[in-house]
Specification:
Elements (H helix, E strand, L loop, with lengths): L1 E7 L4 E6 L2 H9 L13 E3 L10 H31 L1 E4 L2 H9 L8 E3 L3 H10 L15
Parallel strand pairs: 4-5
Antiparallel strand pairs: 1-2, 1-3
């Protein structure tokens, strides 16, 4: 696994883990890498300083960072499991279904699914309450 510093078109910086550089590029081209702050899909690698371990202290810090990353992935995995168990999956119809719930055209319930950046922007402009969640792969996949 590799960690990359990433930056979106809105200048938000964040870290993400990938199998390798090729995996990052494939996922980015498919639009599956999004900024966790704003949901922007125009994500690029940010400039990174090379990780050079010159002392025991830095090696320990790197191990601590790796442990924190593993813990974060576990928390995100539990969040995914909770959402899947407690919400209705509406797939690519997320924006339309969220809009129907917002305007009272259908029963109020918790839903999840996929939306494009443009759809998310439109929902925000309309005042529809939703949250973009960083979706991590299932542990069993």
């Amino acid at each position: 696994m590799m960690v990359f510093d990433l930056i979106c078109a809105n200048k938000h910086t964040f870290e993400a883990w990938f199998k390798d550089s090729k995996s990052f590029e494939q996922l980015r081209r498919k639009g599956e890498v999004e900024c966790p702050a704003c949901g922007d899909g125009q994500v690029e690698k940010a400039l990174m300083a090379p990780a050079v371990a010159t002392s025991k202290k830095r090696t320990e810090a790197a191990k601590a960072n790796a442990a924190m990353a593993v813990e974060a992935m576990q928390v995100l995995g539990k969040m995914r499991q909770h959402v899947e168990e407690n919400c209705d999956y509406v797939g690519t119809e997320f924006a339309e279904e969220a809009r129907k719930i917002h305007y009272g055209e259908t029963e109020k319930r918790d839903i999840y699914g996929e939306a494009t950046k443009a759809e998310a922007d439109n929902l925000s402009e309309e005042g529809v309450d939703f949250t973009a969640i960083p979706w991590v792969p299932r542990a069993d996949s």
